[in-house]
Amino acid sequence: MSDLAKTPKTPDSSETPETPQTPETPETPETPETPETPKVSTEKPAAAAPAAEPSAAPVPAVDPRLLVREEGFAGYWAEFTRKVRGGELGSLPVLVGLIVIAIVFQFQNSNFLSASSLANIAVYSSGLGIMAVGIVFVLLLGEIDLSVGSVAGVGAAVWAVLNVNHGWNDWTAVLVAVLSGMVIGALHGFFFAKIGVPAFVVTLAGFLGWSGLQEWMMGGEGSINTPSGSIVENLTNYFFEDKAVAYGVALVAVLAYAASLLVDSRRRAAAGLPSRPTTEIVLRTGIVAILCFAVAYVLNEPSGARGLPLALVLFLAVLVVADFVARRTTFGRQVFAVGGNPEAARRAGIDVDRIRITVFALSGMLGAFGGLFIASLSGGATKSAGGGNTLMLVIAAAVIGGTSLFGGRGKVWSALLGMIVIQSIQQGLNMIGMANAIQYMITGAVLLAAVVIDSVSRRTQKTAGRA
To answer: Which of 72, 113, 199, 428 has minimal Cβ neighbours within 10 Å of its Cβ?
Structure first.
């Protein structure tokens, strides 16, 4: 009977219209310790399976790149405008600048876009462009190399002395010259990374010291002429007259680009990551094919065309290899990491000192190689090779092309774009008879504009929370 008396008390608690107070049940979801709920669901296996499937489905859809590709051209346009608003301009300013330069100078002189004019731009861009590739890697570290011009002069002097004065084999002399630049760069990197001397001071000292070594090596004569038919002479004076060579190089470039896109797409798809659809791969390959075959046509067909320059082939080969190293290898990723935050890279297990020494060695090697192009253009090695405005043009090319002076951001191909901009300006001003003083002022203004764009872009990215 006492039990019966207790039971009415439960209906009293069935003032449990207050049981709607069991919004304490939300507390049970908050405590996902409720492994009991999975147990209840295990009794209903059919309900448990669908519950797992929807949780897996949204995962790939969250990736913004996948959403962009699913939306087609509208998605890509939205992504492009979002990047521009966020300060991620990429190569857009350079491409716009090139179009403006071409229109202005073609209007001033109808021969600016002729085959011979474009061939000159390609040849004169090659040597300095190769040196700019090395500077791109140094800038990715957030550092600077002021010695690249004098290292180029030393490379030319080493080749000339060994080949001409001492009768060394042409190929051996070229190899030793390039290796001498690598050793010089590694020495700069050692003082910077291991001793702690700022890169600015080390390379400034190198600029002065190696200039003195170059002058001492050249001796009293001050210049050594390039032998006829030598490797160095052919660097900038040899053109592939056979038209099939230019078209063949264009075809190889297009096929290699398409293959890289396909391999990357399949690799990402196999890993369950967003990948480019076939339509996008076809479109990208078509655009590259148009550009490559247009260049081959201009170098081959019009009047005054001399064929594909060897200098351009070598420059493009250096760009392709350097781009692969920067984007597809562990070393390249470590360079970006060190440039972005050296301390974080060190804590992540990256040998920061080794990366720095290697990058400066690479800059010195490419600097010496570019010095051989300078000797080829000038007809020999001289005391002043690599001097003058060489350093300014090389650094300006890397920065104008889009490599950040603040480290951690840039592309190897910026060396090509920046050097084409500079040489196009110089070629156009020469064709309309402008003085060198005007050329320097205009190039300086373009360099300043590139740095301003970079600074504003970084500030915009920080404001947008993307830096």
So the answer is: 72
